[in-house]
Here is the input.
Amino acid sequence: MAGGLFSGDDDDLEEQHEINVTPFIDVILVLLIIFMVAAPLSTVDIPVELPVSAAPQQKRPDKPIYVTLKVDLSLSVGEDPVTRSALIDAIERQTKGEKATRLYLRADKSVPYGELMVLMDALRSGGYLKVGLVGLEGAASASGLDK
Here is the structure.
């Protein structure tokens, strides 16, 4: 802070009030830089926006084999409902024992992720390693990810 004496016409000395703002601006800029660097480090959540696939559509087999996991956790192979214990047998009948056949897994979006993983483990333990996940074609809306 600077103060000075100002001489007017009547020889009375008046104080001139001036504030030197340069050090103040320097301090503010340093604090701004510190907060700009520290703010991204203090976030806990990691926002992830999944990209929309722009890959060309793959040629589908003439008769794909769909394994469907419904919202009530019941299973179907093709259009036929099956139990979990009879799943691999039903798939072997559909594929005629060919383990290299690609299976298409459809699951309701409200099915818990753990149940989907249990089903995929069952398929893998049955020897079926080529599993494709089926979803809706087209671009997903970003607002659908916010729910």
